[in-house]
């Protein structure tokens, strides 16, 4: 079983994303209500992937990405940002901070699931083969 | 006999059809899941304000609307605004007079109106039984949603409006009854 952490302050959004992700076989979902809560839960265990919103109280999604990337043991954790902020500058900022992908809202379950599957498969491959795959897709 | 350049091998059409059908079914499942979650969230809200919050979340996250208004039609014919889109600030319709006419038309007919004007996209009635209790108006979509509302959005909006209307009425009744019971118990304790 692979664990995916969803970070969003809206319970409606968490439920929607959870339903979308549970269609992927072998996935379980852990929820966090903001960046701070996510960091606390990340101390207990590292999920296979993290999906986060940006606008949240206490600690937003961008701060969370920064904090996760500072932690050595979580540096390779695949992160997807899902946000209403869909301008190119917003996407560049999210990716620049270390997120692996950025999905502007409104989200589509099929797109999210395919990105999640792709990132988890990529993370499961040894580092060298990941580099090769990246080089061949450019 | 020369082979046609675009000739496909036997079975390829079937495989493509199957792929297309699988994709279609996945999309339908996705829509049904969204409807299920939306319905569950709306029906589990016990306070009208909670219902409004859920509607706002669905509009933002699934429809991509950031300029909207939810207004209840009161018995004196006026409208009580319950919520407006947050990201665009107060809603300023393209033409207020025209918008009022459209809104009155939606209340009178109970039918949704989708108009192709700048800053005005859709007006959907909030219907309970045969009564129109309000109107959900969408004025603006997120910039990344440049293609406008899709058929899927229209379907979701219709569903959202009907469930939101029922949820609003149920939550209002629940709140009123809970308050009445609380007052009654308080009186009984002090008597």
Overview of the molecule:
The complex is a heterodimer of chains A (138) and B (191). Chain A has a five-stranded parallel β-sheet with strand order 2-1-3-4-5, sandwiched between helices. Chain A has six helices and five strands; from the N terminus they run βαβαβαβαβαα. Chain A starts with a strand and ends with a helix. In chain A, α1 (11-21) crosses α5 and α2 runs parallel beside α3. Chain A has helices spanning 11-21, 35-44, 61-70, 88-96, 109-124, 127-137; strands at residues 2-7, 27-32, 49-52, 79-83, 101-104. The relative contact order of chain A is 0.16. Chain B is of the alpha+beta class and 191 residues long. Chain B is built from four helices and five strands. Chain B is globular, with a radius of gyration of 22 Å. Chain B has a five-stranded antiparallel β-sheet with strand order 2-1-5-4-3, with helices on both faces. The A-B interface holds A 10-13, 15-16, 19-20, 23, 84, 86-87, 104-110 and B 23, 26-27, 29-30, 33-34, 36-38, 40-41, 53-54, 57-58, 60-64, 66, 87, 142-145.
- Overall mean pLDDT of chain A: 88
Q: Helicity level of chain A, as a percent range?
A: 40-55%
Structure annotation, total helices of chain A: 6
| Strand segment count of chain B | 5
**Assembly state of the chains shown:** heterodimer
Distance between the termini of chain B: 103 Å
Please give the number of β-strands of chain A: 5
What is the beta-strand fraction of chain A? 15-25%
Strand content of chain B: 15-25%
Write the layout of secondary structure elements.
The complex is a heterodimer of chains A (138) and B (191).
Chain A: E1 2-7, H1 11-21, E2 27-32, H2 35-44, E3 49-52, H3 61-70, E4 79-83, H4 88-96, E5 101-104, H5 109-124, H6 127-137
Parallel strand pairs in A: 1-2, 1-3, 3-4, 4-5
Helix pairs in contact in A: 1-5, 2-3
Chain B: H1 12-43, H2 48-63, E1 65-73, E2 79-84, H3 96-109, E3 113-117, E4 120-128, E5 131-141, H4 151-190
Antiparallel strand pairs in B: 1-2, 1-5, 3-4, 4-5
Helix pairs in contact in B: 1-2, 1-4, 2-4
